[in-house]
Design goal:
BCA_ABC_TP_C, Amino acid/amide ABC transporter ATP-binding protein 1, HAAT family, 6-stranded mixed beta sheet, binds adenosine-5'-triphosphate, Rossmann fold, alpha/beta, 252 residues, hydrolase, ATP binding, nucleotide-binding
Length: 252
């Protein structure tokens, strides 16, 4: 379970996030929406340790991870994708996932130089886990392809497979539908729902495509100028005057 309590983040004079709180359990999908510059990505950057929160706490399964370094937070089970796809060009789809897989290697220094039995077993295990991650996003048949040769929608799925390889208990998806065509958005929506249904992790989803985020999230958090202006079910936030004003402007 993820419990974020009253986090703040300033950049000089800019208040990027003010008093943001959220509690999410495995199987839930939380949408975080709001106009450009509302502080959504900064929330992800604080949760994943890219930025240190100025105030507030991030508790994961009872452990305070607010001040941990980025790699330690990742090991605790926070995995994410980025607005701009970050894949390794020149590495196959499978190798892109294997780079993200944290095998917590047990073989000795000797195994680093000579393919010992333990090393071979671990490599086989890593391969199988990563192929399973690709299968979960429907990408196993592209394992040997180069990501740059694949359609954008597949590259987005590959990013999600990379995040799955980190054994997440919280999956942060930052605008996963950016640049996708309507068919790809619909497939992505089905994928996110099926991943959440596994109840392996909670999904936090930043998205500008409101039809996507409203159709699959149980709870929506609406940000504007760093503040949460509404939290509720999709129906509740759609009917909230402050939300309508933030998106459409105030009627004179
Ligand atoms: N590293 C940084 N240094 C200075 N200001 C920053 C930094 N990161 C974010 N900001 C500022 O914090 C505010 C919130 O930015 P953020 O990227 O979190 O918004 P967002 O809601 O994710 O926007 P978008 O939807 O456009 O991605 C903006 O005013 C932004 O310029």
């Amino acid at each position: 379970m993820l419990e974020i309590t009253r986090i703040h983040k300033n950049f000089g004079g800019i208040v990027a996030v003010q008093d943001f709180s959220l509690t999410a359990s495995q199987g839930e999908i939380h949408g975080i929406i709001g106009p450009n510059g509302a502080g959504k990505t900064t929330i992800f950057n604080v949760i994943s340790g890219i930025y240190a929160a100025d105030q507030g706490t991030v508790i994961l399964d009872g452990h305070d991870i607010t001040r941990l370094e980025q790699h330690k937070i990742a090991r605790k089970g926070i995995a994410r994708t980025f607005q701009n796809i970050r894949l390794f060009k020149g590495l196959s789809v499978l190798h892109n996932v294997m780079c993200a897989f944290d095998s917590q290697t047990r073989y000795s220094i000797l195994g680093a130089f000579i393919p010992t039995r333990l090393r071979r077993e671990e490599e086989k295990h890593g391969h199988d886990v990563c192929m399973a991650c690709l299968a979960r996003v429907g990408m196993e048949k592209y394992a040997d392809e180069m990501p740059e040769n694949l359609p954008y929608g597949h590259q987005r799925r590959l990013e999600i497979a990379r995040a799955l390889a980190c054994h997440p208990s919280i999956l942060l998806l930052d605008e996963p539908a950016a640049g996708l065509n309507p068919t790809e958005v619909s497939e992505l929506s089905d994928l996110i729902v099926s991943l959440a249904e596994s109840k392996d992790f909670a999904v936090l989803l930043i998205e500008h495509r409101l039809e996507l985020v409203m159709s699959i999230s149980q709870l929506i958090h609406v940000q504007n100028f760093g503040k949460t202006i509404a939290t509720g079910t999709p129906e509740e936030v759609k009917a909230n005057p402050a939300v309508i004003e933030a998106y459409l402007g105030k009627e004179e």
